[in-house]
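Case 250 in the screening queue. Each case pairs one protein sequence with one candidate compound; here the compound is pyridoxine-5'-phosphate. For every case the pipeline is the same: read the inputs, emit a complex structure as tokens, and attach any notable structural observations.

Predict complex for case 250.
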Amino acid sequence: MSSLRLGVNVDHVATLRQARYATMPESKNAEPDLLVAARICERAGAGGIVAHLRSDRRHIQDHDIERLRQNIMTKLNLEMGNTEEIIDIALRILPDEVCLVPEKREEITTEGGLDVLAQRKELEPTIRRLQVAGIRVSLFINPTLEEVDVAAELGVEMVELHTGKLANAFTEKIQKQELEQLRCAARAASESNLQVNAGHGINYKNISLIHQIPCLTELNIGHAIVSRAMWVGLETAVKEILEAMANYDE
Ligand code: PXP
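Case 250 output:
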């Protein structure tokens, strides 16, 4: 078995539901049911469920977070922007973990890591409030040594290294550079006693590159799994990615 844990991001199960049911939020027949998806992921071996409650509510809704919190067997990782409205929800619902991410309304998905250098003053009180409530906090950061240092100074438990640039690298040269950055950042974070997670754009093909990053504890993967599920079903899609994660050697 892999020593790497998988968090399945179920946002795009909700995207599909919202495509039909956004104007009928109370419908009992709203398909696909997010909780059924989460349970299948858990049954297939996922170590946690990840959901991003965006301020525009384009996919995950408040009631999704409540239902996941009450019903999943593993852990709930709430991805969220640093806004008062969403912080209040996190403090009420109490996910096991929060991953603070940047959020722009016009973006299709989270585009870059948090600018922890520029935002440390705004991040610090939020981190403390979440931690006092018993929530473990992660910062989604670009893989640079400066950002790892600031994350460590901010006293979070974890960082999630942004793998999007590696995933989208269109030349071998860029791929090599990105991999080297990720490797250095992962080592530095681990030396600062931070749990090191990674996510964004990881799929069945590029996961072999992820194996070259040391010190990882968890991968958070969404789009590739939900897409693959269309062909093979969600349970098999999760099992296949877990298989591809197996034999990770720190
Ligand atoms: N981790 C973070 C912080 C994210 O914002 C996302 C996208 O919502 C993911 C992981 C999952 O990315 P993907 O859907 O590309 O697998």
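Case 250 observations:
- The chain has a mean pLDDT of 95.
- The domain at 5-245 is CATH 3.20.20.70 (TIM Barrel).
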